[in-house]
Amino acid sequence: MRAIAVTLVVLSHAGLSGLAGGYVGVDVFFVISGFLITTLLLGELQRSGTISLAKFYARRATRLLPASTLVLLVTLAGAWLWLPATRFKSISLDALYATFYGINWRLASEGVQYLNADAAPSPLQHFWSLAVEEQFYLVWPLLLLIFALTFRSRYRKPVLIALGLAVLASLYVSVQVTESSAPYAYFGAHTRAWELGIGALVAIGTTRLAGLPQPLAAVLTWAGLAAVVTSALLYDDATPFPGTAAALPVLGAAAIIAGGCAAPRGGVAVLLGRWPFQQIGKYSYSWYLWHWPVLMIVPFALDTEPTVGLNLSLAAIALLLAIGSYHLVENPGRNQPWVKRSAVRGIAVGLALSLAVAVVARVGGNHPPQLAKGAPAVVTAEVVAAATDPEAELRRIIATSAGLGELPSNITPPVERGHKDLPEYYGTDCHLDYTEVVPPGPCAFGDPAGAQTVYLLGDSHAAHWYPAMQTIAAKHGWRLVVRTKSACQAPTVRTFANTLKRAYTECEQWRAAMLAEIKRAKPTMVVVSSNGNNNGGLLNAAGQFADRGPEAQRDGLWVAGWKATFRALTAKGTRLVLIEDTPWPGKDTPECLATNSRHASRCARPAEDAFAFPARQELVSRTARDLGVTVIPTRQWFCADVCPQVVGNIMVWRDNSHITTKYAQMLAPLLEARLPIGGN
What we know:
It contains 28 helices and 15 strands. The chain has 680 residues and is an alpha/beta fold. The strands form 5 sheets. Strands 3, 4, 5, 6, 9, 10 and 12 form a 7-stranded mixed beta sheet that branches.
């Protein structure tokens, strides 16, 4: 079974077509783990009448930590050498959380933040499942011991009842949280505990299960295998998971184990008992540890884009590493006689290994790789501000920057801190995240007491214009009210939220409320902007995808949504402005520049590829003009033939789509000249 589980996970991560749902292998691991550990604990109770918690945790430490410590240290070294320097501090924190089995909560927290939605996955992300297991085993042995001491030899029935209730409670929580917060559902121990609990329930019922009729037991094992494989084939990244969807692989794994307790002839053991499955099962833990860092780091070391073919080759290399580390580290580490004789020594060795990783992670995190820097570049903001024709001067600098080699020594914001270059507006909590609907207050900037009110409305691609709008508002004495929400585009449409893995109902509620608020406020001007991508796609009233037809049909749906928004905002005395979406750099800018610090021009993207759905944008802009909306194009501020990621001394984007505060501030006078100020 472990061979099936780890193979599904590895092939899924390698990108093998048709196995996008291979992540269910982790759920199979949870069931296996719950069964095996509970079987060992019950056996100890049967023999001695108690459970030695010290020996249990010593065994866990010596079983898991030698191999995981090796992988963590090698991954840190590989990340330092080959991954973008901008990522190393975060990866070092991941190692710290991983070695103390808390990384699942870190990943859950990071995953619910929109600004991290497109971040590259950590090479240590897979440690989350190990963290869930160990958090479960912080509690389960102790509870089992308490029941044994309380009920003596009659502890099994109370344990069965209590565990059954806990499984139901965790499953209920899993379903609820999957609907409300997919990252916490996926990585949370509270939403996964029922899966380990199912394995534990099977362990408690082993004696009775051993008496199952042979034909029934055999069918049960094959049905269980079919359930696991079916879920791997049918599920994908869009499947709300774990929730109810996890029941298929979990119950399938439980069925394999339950049927196997009767050792039926003709059961799935005739397949899983064969040599290849046995060998892969033996190396499954190490292969699981190695495969993900290898997939994440080696393409960077080879300076190549990952492909399925390359990933499959890397998965095979990871298996060879797993075999080597099993025989040289994992197996010797857990079988050292001097460690096995003393629980205290086992725990001490485990603690020492974890502390070693912690020290390396902290020291390394404080000394990330340094980037190559060249001569200082022209100070873009000063030159543009002083120019007779600022737009012409900016176009000249953009054209010159297209061939940039080494990063300028005066680049701003610094590449290493680019991801943190958020407008000060984000610190006010006025930009709402996925599940937030009600703004915390008026969110008024510029001159809060100004006689004229101007609204900035949209998603994060509206929010990244805040620095420019704030500068303009302060100059003119406007009261600038900012209403923005993550991934919530301004057109009146219903969309699917990939992060939440469901309809983005919060966006609909927020947008409707904001349009009504603006209508009541009767502002002087409303500036609207949104990203031009599809996000998760359009949904109809029934929650089904409505944009799977021809592109022209999809564009029509978006245009209709924009038209509805503009009409809702139209009011006497209110000027409407649409800032067209900014170009997309195609890569995470700080990471690309960190990787190509001597050849920054490699990060530039052809202008013809940089705009999301340009034909749709043209339709939207034409519709807006027909409705009397002032439309401000953006291409001339970012691109010539290509869109460089550094213009003069300013880094243009802080991630893969949002412009930096510095660049937005530099554009303030150019944006001001395009706004319909004073009726123009």
